[in-house]
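Dear support,

I submitted the protein below through the web form. The confirmation email said the job was done, but the results page showed an empty box. After a refresh the structure appeared. I'm attaching both so you can tell me whether what I see now is the final result or a partial one.
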Amino acid sequence: MSKLEHSYLELIDVILNNPREQEINILNANKKLVNQEFISCLMSVGEKLRRSGELAPAERLINLAEKLLQLQKTNTSNTRRKEYFEFLMNLLQQISNKVEPSKIYDFIRQNQDKLDQNLTNILKYWANETILSVDSQQQRAIANDLVNFGNLIVSYPAGDKSNNVEMAIVSYGAALQAYKPINFPKDWAMIQSNLGNAYRDRVLGSRQENIQTSIATYHLALEVITQEKYPYLWGNTQRNLGIAYTYRIEGDRAKNIEQAIICYNRALSVHTLEDYPNDWAASQNNLGDIYPNRLVGDKAENIETAIDRLELALEVFTLSNNPHRWAMLQNNLGNAFQSRINGDKSSNIERSISHYQNALSIHTLEKFPYNWAMLNNNLGGAYRHRVKGEKAANKRQAIAFLNKALLVYTQDKFPRQWSEIQHNIRNIG
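What the results page shows now:
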């Protein structure tokens, strides 16, 4: 056995003879030994222990090796890895110092090239290992920063949406280690609610499973966040649960939509226009978004209800005071008018196109790429069914809008949307 191999085994022995939460400190104190050969030694010793029936230490060593491998998979140079880590630490420090979100977003934009899987891997390793190595008070401080980071990054309009959501999931998951439901029920429940939002919007993995996870997570949160104790938070969670039921794949579609409507109306029972105008308008928007798809009742009446709800929300979310929400409402109004039964079909389609174009004035490719792609996709649908103008020209315009959407909805990042657009392009042609 070489001297180096002997050093690896000694380090493994130190790890096994100390609490798991000290692993990161031990590894930091022996950085020169932590390399690919050491990881291989960890796996080898772990496998030997497993075969001899010593399952607990075997699992510990194998898990540690996998964590170190995951960190190595970033495939970046030591210098590049340091840049990622320094960016992450700087970002978390700004969050801890309560820097304005707009300034934090400016900082993120300046480092857009670092918003990738490498950063997610580093965040996952650092967050989970660090929280286990500090005292309970420090744990909660780090957890708060991670939750705030998750909230910021999941709402960040640029970058890779799928990876942004993954970073949020990693952040919330690590933060939960500092807040146990018995000791900190409200904090625990709020993080569960945030996790529900992230899984609802998750791009990676099975869409069906993500939505089911989201719904289950919201229900966990609602065991603590009751209407009696926390009416405002209860209303927020009900609205988010409604969105999840809107997207739900499992179960009966009509029942899922009705459940979503129930959740939105529950939210409105506590989020009144007088007390919480923005939340009230958000639920009106959600109802306006779902009513055109409602399978119960008269379809024409449902669409008229949707338009009424969306126009109510526009009284709160104006272009001047909330351009982003205003643009989302314009998109939803475009959808409603595109599917409208009452009135003149040609006029409805023209109104639909006008609303989508309004939204594009705010949701640009540079600032809101995902929303920009969604609007181009919707415009493609509107031009596909357009009555006014020459039919062949409308078809060409529809295909052009759909191809624009494909600049963002790529096959690797958004396979579901990519597939739907490819299908629509073939049908137009």
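Response: this is the final, complete result; the empty box was a page-load delay. The chain has a mean pLDDT of 92.
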